[in-house]
Amino acid sequence: xxxxxxxPNSSGAEEPDVDAQLPATVRIGGVVLRxxxxxxxxxxxxxxxxxxxxxVETGMSLVIEPAARPEEATLHxxxxxxxxxxxxxxxxxEYCRTRLRESHFGLTPDELSWLDLPExxxxxxxxxxxxDQTWAIRFAESRLRLADPYGILVTFNGTQPVDVEGLxxxx
Length: 171
Prior knowledge:
Blueprint: E1 25-28, E2 31-36, E3 43-48, E4 59-64, H1 72-83, H2 85-99, H3 109-114, E5 122-130, E6 135-142, E7 152-157, E8 160-166
Parallel strand pairs: 4-5
Antiparallel strand pairs: 1-2, 2-3, 3-4, 5-6, 6-7, 7-8
């Protein structure tokens, strides 16, 4: 832990931004997040987990609304997610395997059969952490119609998945 109680490598600002209130980069558990363009009402930083050569990149976004510098508690929470991300993705996949069988998701018989495969048709997971310490895993790629066009979002309460939804243009 650092002197301010945050995990190592989770310090806030590394470089000044045009807006002196918001850092251009944030480091969370070895993941460097860079500030990206967003509506004035929020601040968003995004980056990728280090991956072995040839592996698909896994991303993380930190969203603060209203726009503000990330608080240490939020950075610490995001660090916990980064440090356990693989296990949390596995939880999200199993949650989807169960929940997506519910009739209101409207999966076709073929899509339902894909839920029995050893590997679900969900890929390219990325974490989204909000300032209120809610968070989700978005699977950006999937063969499921429900995932068209932006993927499937699994929302968590702490470390437990609590909801799943397809992302469309309205979300």
